[in-house]
Amino acid sequence: MDDPRSLVLYGVLAFLMVASLRRAFHNPKLDAIPIVRSSKLAGNYWDAYNFPVNGLNLIKAGYAQYPEGIFRVARLFRWMFIVSSPKLVKEIGDAPETVLSFHGGVELNFPIKLLIGPAVAENHYHVHTIRTNLTRNLHACFPDVKDEITDAFGDVVQLQGSEWKSLPMLPTTMAIVARVSNRLFVGLPLCRDRTYLQNNVQFALDIMRSRRKMDWFPYFLRPLVAPLICDKDKTIAVALKALSPLIEERLSKEKELGPDYAGKPNDLISWLLEDAEEKERNAPSLVLRILLSNFAAIHTTSMAFTQAMFDLTTRLEHLLPMREEADRVIAQEGWTKTALNSMFKIDSFLRESQRMNNNLAAAMVRKVVAKDGFMFSDGTVLPEGSMVCAAARPIHYDSSIHENATEFDGFRFARERAEHGATQDLNQVIFKRQMISTGPDHLAFGTGKHACPGRFFAATELKAMLAHVVMNYDLKAEMEGVRPPDAVSGLAISPNATAMVQFRKRIDL
Ligand code: HEM
Known about the structure:
Layout: H1 4-25, H2 44-49, H3 51-65, E1 70-75, E2 78-83, H4 86-94, E3 100-101, H5 102-109, H6 112-115, H7 118-122, H8 125-136, H9 138-157, E4 165-168, H10 169-185, H11 194-214, H12 222-229, H13 233-257, H14 268-275, H15 283-314, H16 319-333, H17 337-341, H18 344-357, E5 363-368, E6 374-375, E7 381-382, E8 387-390, H19 392-396, H20 412-421, H21 426-432, H22 455-472, E9 473-477, E10 487-489, E11 492-494, E12 500-505
The structure holds protoporphyrin IX containing FE.
């Protein structure tokens, strides 16, 4: 600070930040859209600065005041427009990429181009691979997924005799989900390699930390500061070392024996190679896709399972009915992917847990990219460049949409499937209440054109894991009846990272 040049630099930066904030918040064309503030005295600057702490409260307050419409809250360097009514949420989900851009929204909220690199931000072929090849292969790969679940729980939980053992739920789940996901992504033995798995988790943590730092800079400065902030090179190097031999071997076998050689492994590496353009068919490019797939899969699925375990251990009356269901279905149908379709209670329990604990206060972030802006059916116009999203958490807690919405009712969707199934078009109703089905009133996976393409895998994995747990373990909460509080930061709502759950080998009384 003694150097006068530093003072000048900090002064210029402070000036640029204030100028960017002023410019972002001043737009008379938006006057018709209500602003939600934390208090009458609070200014937009304070709310924008304090969004990581108070964002969820602002979104809840906005939804309570404008349940049918659109409101805005201040974020650093821009307004965030939030849509309340499911009717308008559907319009977000249905809008084409050239009007409301999913990728533009990602860049505003999570600048992948700067955090990871332009190749993955500009070419999204891995999304297509997940939507098509990965999902299609879930039946064929289910025995591997199940095998990995059994093995991973055995290794990670490690119970002796009939004693209770306390386990930190989120890290335990993360270790298991990382293994199970990578059984499908890269196969054995790499999916059990601790250094490789830990590196995938570290990659996600580094990227999220870099992104939080980036939030403090105005958009136009971000490309300049990105190289100083972004922490990705080390984890990419570790992943490259682990994956290169596998990828090189696949490429040379293809060259020698053709693309469909006998014994070609059925995993994400092979599926990506089928879809990749020539310039992407090399180890460094594929490694980024695999890291990105891990990033999309591991934290989301681990958080969902951890929340389900907290729900189960605070509402233990659900355990025996799910155990009975899993025992019965597997005795009748075998331990197959098809058997999962008959586990209505387990499916319903996970859907209900996602309803109450979806990991985003507001989801489906989009950027308006149409030159003339975007007009909702209620007449509200958002200008080009605006950031818009859906009030996911308040919609999930709205009692005019879900009966007794603030109450956890693990089997509500199983009941709805049973009740409505008798009177309406069976397939239609059953489909609507499944864990994988999305809609403007159920946004855990988003809805519309960009609804999560990995949800079929996530649901298979989560259902098989929950069935395995209820069939093999007795459970209880660390403190009876107390659900560990979530951690909230801005839009992100995460399960408690240190809370424990107690496990014991199943004892049938
Ligand atoms: C419980 C687990 C998961 C949750 C809650 C979840 C949630 C989401 C959400 C909310 C979105 C954005 C939807 C939107 O903005 O409209 C999304 C997108 C995405 N998810 Fe998931 N996800 C999960 C698991 C997975 C898994 C296992 C994979 C990969 C195998 C995956 C891959 C992706 C990808 C690639 C996208 C971007 C889609 C696109 O570009 O159109 N997700 N996910």
